[in-house]
Amino acid sequence: MVKVAIWGSLRRATDGKAEVEVEAGNFKQLLDQLVVQYPGLKPQIKRGVSLALDGKIYRDNWFVKINEDSEVVLMPYMVGG
Amino acid sequence: MALDENGKRTFNIIGTRPPRPDGIDKVTGRAMYGADATAPGMLTGHILRSPHAHAKIKSIDTSAAEALSGVKAVITSADFGVPEDDYTRDVQDNCMAREKVLYDGHAVAAVAAINAGVAKQALKLIKVEYEILPHVTDVDAAMKPDAPIVLAGYAMDGLPKGMSENVTHHFEFGHGDMDAGFAKADKIVERSFTTAATHQGYIEPHACLATMGGDGKGELWVCTQGHYHVRGVCADILGMDASQLRVTASEIGGGFGGKTTVFIEPVALALARKSGRPVKLVMNREEVFRASGPTVSSSTDVKIGMTKDGRITAAHATLRYQGGAFPSGTVQFGAQSAFAAYDLDAVQTIGWNVMTNRPKEAAYRAPGAPMAIYAVESVVDELCQELGLDPLDVRLKNAARKGTKSAYGPTFDDIGLEATLEAAKAHPHYAAPLGPNQGRGLSCGFWFNFGGNTCVTMNLNFDGTVGITEGNPDIGGSRASISMMAAEELGISYDKVRTIVADTNSLGHNDITDGSRVTFAVGLATIKAAREAIKVMCARAAKIWDIDADAVYWEDGFAKPSGPNAGAFEPMSIEEIAASSPNTGGPIAGHHEVNADGAGVSFGVHLVDLEVDPETGATTVLRYTVFQDAGKAVHPDYVEGQMQGGAVQGIGWALNEEYIYGQDGRLQNPGLLDYRIPVASDLPDIDTVILEIPNPGHPYGVRGVGETPIVPPLAAISNAVSRSIGLRMSALPMSPPKILKALKSKG
C-alpha cells in the first residue's frame, strides 16, 4: 500500500482524509485506484494532476515506479510562463 | 538521467560566454518576426472588437462589409463550429465572441481585405446590435453573491453559500495545527494586500500569416512560445487533422508567458479558409492590451505569527485571483508557492479563482507566485520591523532546506535557498549605508520549474560540423545554450554547431517554451542525442579499425582506442568519421525523445535600495542585486539577463504598471504612454550573483532560471518603500500619487 497526501481542497472527495492509502506500483495505477476508491477525485484527475514522488515532481509519467515507503504527494498539474 | 552519470564534472564550454547566434540578425533587422512574412496574393486581416465590457450580441450584420470592393472574407463566430470539449470551446470563444461579449476588446467579427484601408473601412460597416449587461472587473466584487455573472455554468463544484457563481476554483494546501502555532507566537501580524493586473510587456505584438488551400492543408507562420500547441488548438478549432496544419515559429520579440496561447491565429486561418488567400493578421498595441492576456489581479490576506527571536510559528494566507472572462486555475500556484521559502510546522493557504469582465489572463513568468509571495514577504518584513530583527537573519532562521516538508506538500531535496541567503548577507550591498528618504528591501522568491515533452535531433554533417534541430522557440538564448551543450558533449568548438527551431512537421512534439523548461529539458535531450551519436561514431571508427566497438571511447572530439589491447590506432577526429560516413554505413545522427522530469525547484533573493521623494511620491531605484541558484549556468550572460529582466519587470509591476478600468468597464490605458513600463533611464545597473547548486536531475546540473527572478521584486520594492516612508504599503502599484496619498494620511 502507498500513502498518498491529498491537498486540502480535494479532501471533500476523500471523506476529509489528508492522506489515503492505495495499492499501486506506479503513477497510472495510483491514479486508477484513487478514482476507484474516491470517485469524487475523478474531475480533478481528468483536469490534470502532478505527482511529487520523494520530492521530485512528475507531470505525466504513468510508469514511474512508486515504492511503498515513497513520499507521495498529489499536486495540481504544473504549468508555467 | 542524473547529474554526472557519465562522470563529467569539469567543463570546457559550459560556463563560457560565446557570442549569441541570433545577435547579428536582430541588430541588422534580418531576423524574421511574426509580421515580417509575406505571401503572394496576401490579404490583410483586421478584427472588430467590442466596445462594451459585457453585452449580449443580439445580431451582427456583415452584408455591407462583404459588399465593399476589396473585401474578400468576413467572419463571425458563425464561421466556427462549437467544440465539444470545454477547453477548446473557451479558447475559441475568447478568439471570437459567441452570444455574449465578455470584456472590452473581445473580438466579434473579422475581415480580410486587399489592404489595411479597405479592411478598416469594412469594420466600420459591420453592424452589431448589443444588449448591454452589468459588468464586474474587481476580484472582490466579483465574488459577492449579487455580482453580475460573467459566464453561467462555470461555478466550482461545491460552491460555498454566499459566493458568486463567478468563483471557478478553490485550492487549499498546508499542514500542521494552526491554532497551536499561532498560540506560540509572541507577535502576530495580519494584513491584506492587492496587486493590479499587469501585462507581460513584450515588444512584439501578436502576428501571424495563415494560408489554407482548397485541399484542406494549412500553413501558419506565427510569433509564439509554442507552435506545437498552436497547431493542436487551431487544428481542433478548424476541424483539421494536426498533420495537415504546419506551423512555423517566427523569431520572437518577447513572450514571458503571454504567447503560450492563441488569440488571432484561428481567426487568420478561418479568414484564409473563407477567402482562399493567405491572410496576415497583426495586433496593434491597443489590441495587445485590450485583447491578449495580462496576468491576474489579486486580493490577499496574510496572517503570520513569530517568536521574539524570529521563528515563524504559524502562517496563513487567503488568496483571491481574478483571471478574466474564462475559468483559470492560476491561484493554485500562488497558494502552493506563497510560503515555499519557509520551513514551517503550521501553514495553510486557501486560494479562490474568480471570473471577471476582463480579458482572459495568460501566463506571466511564474504565474501566480509573485503576488502571493509579495503579500507573505511583506508581512515577514513587518514582523522583523516590529520585533527589531534583521530580515536576512529571520529568513535564514526559517529557510526551507533539504529535508523540509514544503508548504505545498513534498519534502525538498537539494535546494539553494540557504546558500542564496548567505550570499546576500555576505554581499557588500547588504552593509552599504543608506541616506535620507532611502530604504532597503529584500524578498525571497520561488518557482517550481518543470521539464516536459521534448524531441531533439543531432545531425552530423559530412564536414564534421553539427546541426541541432529542436522544437522550442528561442525566447531566452536557448539556441546558444543548446549549441554549447552539444559542443561540450561532443568535444568540439561552439562555432561548429548550429541549432535551429524546426516547424511542427519536421520534428516530434515539443511542449511550449514555458515553465523555465527549455535549457533544462531540451538541453538534457541534446546531451542524450549527442551521446547516441557518439556511440555511432565510435562504432564507425571501430569498423574502420576492425576492432570491437566496445574498445573505442570518445574524448575531445576524437574516437580513440581504449587501450593497448585495442590496438595502436591514431585517434580519429569527428571530421574524419563524418567524411567517411557514406562508406561506413551512411549519415550519422542522434535522437532523443523524452518527457523530462526532475527539473528541480528554484529560489532567489533580491535586495534593493531606493529613495522616495516626499514632495512627489516618486521612487528612484538606486541599487539592485539579484541572487539566484542556477544549478549550472550554461551561458552566464543569458542567466544574468534572465535575472536582470525579471527584476526590471518586477520593478515595473511594483511601482507603476496596472490595468486601469473605468466605471464603464473599459480599459483606460491601452498604450505604452499610459501604461508605464520602466525604461533604461529609470533603472540602475542590476547586479547579479549566480549560485550553482547542481540539480541532480540534469546531467550538467542545470536548473531553469527564467521565471524565479520576477517573483521577489514586488515585495523587495514594497519593503524598501515601506521602510523608506515609515509606513507599510499594501497595494501595488505604488505609483507616485498613491505614495503621496499614503504620506498625507500618515500626516
Name given to the CATH homologous superfamily of the domain at 414-442 and 600-747 in chain B = Aldehyde oxidase/xanthine dehydrogenase, molybdopterin binding domain
- Morphology call of chain A: globular
Q: Would you count the extended β strands of chain B for me?
A: 26
Poorly predicted runs of 5 or more residues of chain A:
none
Q: What would you say the CATH architecture of chain A is?
A: Roll
The residue-averaged pLDDT of chain A reads: 93
Which superfamily, in CATH terms, is the homologous superfamily of chain A? Beta-grasp domain
What is the CATH topology of chain A?
Answer: Ubiquitin-like (UB roll)
Q: Can you write the helix and strand succession of chain A as a string?
A: EEHHEEE
* Average pLDDT number of chain B: 96
Shape of chain B: globular
Q: Roughly what percent helix of chain A?
A: 10-25%
Percent helix range of chain B: 25-40%
Strand order of the main beta sheet of chain B, please? 3-5-1-12-9-10-11
First-last Cα distance of chain A = 36 Å
- CATH domain fold name of the domain at 414-442 and 600-747 in chain B: Aldehyde Oxidoreductase, domain 4
Structural class of chain A: alpha+beta
Outline the structure in words.
The complex is a heterodimer of chains A (81) and B (747). Chain A is an alpha+beta fold and 81 residues long. Chain A has a single domain, classed as Ubiquitin-like (UB roll) (Roll), CATH 3.10.20. Chain A is 21% helix and 26% strand. In chain A, strands 2-1-5-3-4 form a 5-stranded mixed beta sheet. Chain A is globular. Chain B is of the alpha+beta class and 747 residues long. Helices cover 29% and strands 24% of the residues of chain B. In chain B, 58% of the residues are buried. Classes of the chains: A alpha+beta (81), B alpha+beta (747). Chains A and B meet through strand 4 and strand 5 of A and strand 7 and helix 10 of B.
